[in-house]
Hints:
Elements: E1 16-19, H1 25-35, E2 41-45, H2 80-95, E3 99-104, E4 106-108, H3 116-126, E5 128-133, E6 139-140, E7 142-144, H4 145-158, E8 162-166, E9 173-174, H5 175-186, E10 190-195, H6 197-202, H7 228-232, H8 240-252, H9 256-259
Parallel strand pairs: 1-2, 2-3, 3-8, 4-7, 5-10
Antiparallel strand pairs: 6-9
Helix pairs in contact: 1-2, 3-5, 5-8
Amino acid sequence: DRNVGFEALAGKKWDVVVDTSAYFPRQIEQSAKALKDSVKQYVFVSSVSVYKDPGKPLDESAPVGTIADPTIEKITEGSYGPLKALCEQAATRIMEGRALNVRPGYIIGPRDGSDRFTYYLLRTQRGGEMVVPGDPNDPIQVIDGRDLGDWIVKMVAQNTNGVFNAVGPTKPLTMQEVLAACKQVTKTEVRHTFLNADYLRKNNLHEEFPIWSPPSGDTAYFHRVPNAKAVAQGLTFRPLAETLTDTLAWWKSLPPERQA
């Protein structure tokens, strides 16, 4: 429970805490204060959603979103990113230079319960005509949760702190490359019908498809986030086909009611 029980931590020591689940700055305030004298490093898994304007280039120095009431505890499209930014700031302040703030984009792979990226894999497996958002060359950035986890362990071993965009792969995939990999893994014939971003926006359908965002306007750089800083610190990426193969095997292991 993120909200109670911190007294149980008193008097104990750890090398590091990896915090994957704080949504509100109050939660970071509580856990970081409880642990600041018990750990050498505080790792907070944040999000590229912290950035104020994904319509502009987004390196780690780009402005983050703000919110009028920092005590609000309701997650909306407008509050999620600014609240994550406040969480980062709380970790940095309380840990006094011993915080690593990690900003991934979409995390995918086995045990991804969101069904977002998995949708494209399973829809491909169904075959037939498949409606796809945007254009074949639209950028897509995803990172296998195992690659992200391995890199966080490396960063802890190096005791490296600061802010890093942990997005993958080395350069953005295209939607066409994602679809081709899905066909390769499922061995299914499928026909793709692309609906361009203007059509989707005009018909208010641009949010109906997971992962994809229009590569223009106020989301122009959402899937073009630079990762050079993290790659220089050892972030690596397994082939997309491996992630998809493992995801499909995991999915097939789930109970029929979950698959439904």
